[in-house]
Amino acid sequence: MTEQLTTGTDVTRMRELNALSIVRALRGNPPSTVTELAGRTGLSRPGADVIVQGLVADGWITVVEPDGSSVVGRPARRYRFNAGTGHVLGVDVGAHKVLAMLADLDGTVAWTSRLPVDPGADPAARLAVVDAAVDECLAAASLRPEELWAITVGVTGPVDASGRTTLFTPLPGWASVKPAEHLAARFSCPIQVENDCKLAALAERWQGAASDADDIVYLLAGMRTGAGLIVDGTLRRGYGGAAGEIGALRAVRWLTAPSHLQKCASLPAGIDTDDAAAWVFAAARAGDKAARTAVRRYTRDLAVGTAALVLTLDPQVVIFGGGFSRSADLILDQLARELRRTCLRVPEIRASTLGAESVALGALRLALDEVDARLFGERLSTPVAPRA
Questions:
Q1: How wide is the angle at C-alpha 241 spanned by C-alphas 212 and 368, nearest 5°?
Q2: Which residues of 26-36 are buried (b: 16+ CB within 10 A; e: fewer)?
Q3: Which helix (H) or strand (E) holds 45?
Q4: For labelling, which of 152, 190, 284, 318 has a CA lying 20 to 30 Å from the CA of 371?
């Protein structure tokens, strides 16, 4: 064993592993001294110091010069992970808009581009808006396409292993589209495609209302209803990517639940379908009896599918997200009452804190996970964008 450990290959690998441990100790943590890093990684202080200086030279970490102090002696230098050495992109392709977010390797958003798109747009027109939003982010950050480290695209409908929404999607013609293949013509980094509900669930656990939970049911509530599931801290996709699509079962009434808002008796004539729900929620707050009835019926139907998921998974929290989350004040208490009628244990129900940005933020999180898995899980070389 001793002879094997002294071979050049093993020494090189040991240095790589130690460098990885230092980088992991810095990611997501405040700037740290060499002594703190040595304690956190189990390395000797002299060994940690040598590795830190090498990582500074390679660009993985930067020096934080100590502030002036009245304390006798010079304060120790601190080091931090150089998150700006790379960037990732998250894109939310929706029915009415495309939202692109560019972030550094710590997940700090550097630029956001939100562009409208016609709900009836064909795939080519929608992909053109995707390209425009992505280009706007890159131009704002003065980045070239080859400098991106990972991209994740969020779309409506279940996503299979090829990145297509083969089962169903409300986007016209989108079932034939392969977003990853389209973007791969310009970008050489890894590109993933994932369902919007699942990405929103990831975002809420990362930065939102479920940051303290490992077992989560996320409800995307709007004119379309869907769910994202996180169990034991892991996003559940299912064999074919359709986990959480309980709304496909007509008996749970998710498909028809929004119609209660669209058919509210007091709804003004001629109001656009897309604006009906907002009008009903506002009228319900103002005391309109018909609007309150419509909201109650909507919530009752929403509770059927939610109860099925709660009874199946027994989550710690249910996150109420999507476009209707802006009216959570009208829904959450009643939703809890409905669940108490059928569920053995009612989890805490919370409103989303991320709103319309949740899908794009979840896409960023998944892109960062891809960077970690590919880069930090194997070896630590010069910090350049990994290739697909």
A1: 50
A2: bbeeebbbbeb
A3: helix 45-58
A4: 318
For residue 46 the two structure tokens come to 């002299």
Nearest to 146 by CA among 138, 154, 156: 138
- Which pTM was predicted? 0.87
Three-class SS state of 127: helix
**Residue with tokens 């989350």, as numbered in its chain:** 325
Looking from the CA of 165 toward its CB, the CA atoms found within 13 Å total 23
How far, in Å, CA of 311 to CA of 313, rounded? 6
pLDDT of residue 73: 58
Q: Which of 149, 133, 220 is nearest to 364 (CA)?
A: 149
Instruction: Using alpha carbons only, give the angle 189, 354, 300 rounded to the nearest 5 degrees.
Output: 120
Residue 359, pLDDT above cutoff 90 = yes
User: 319, 287 in Cβ contact below 8 A?
Assistant: no
Q: Which of 237, 310, 297, 311 is nearest to 265 (CA)?
A: 297
CA distances from 5 to 134, 293, 367 (A): 48, 74, 36
Tokens coding 246: 């309980």
Query: Is residue 54 over pLDDT 80?
Result: yes
Going by pLDDT thresholds of 50, 70 and 90, the confidence category of residue 4 is very low
pLDDT score at 291: 97
378 burial via Cβ count (<10 Å: 0-12, 13-18, 19+): exposed
Position 5 scores a pLDDT of 42
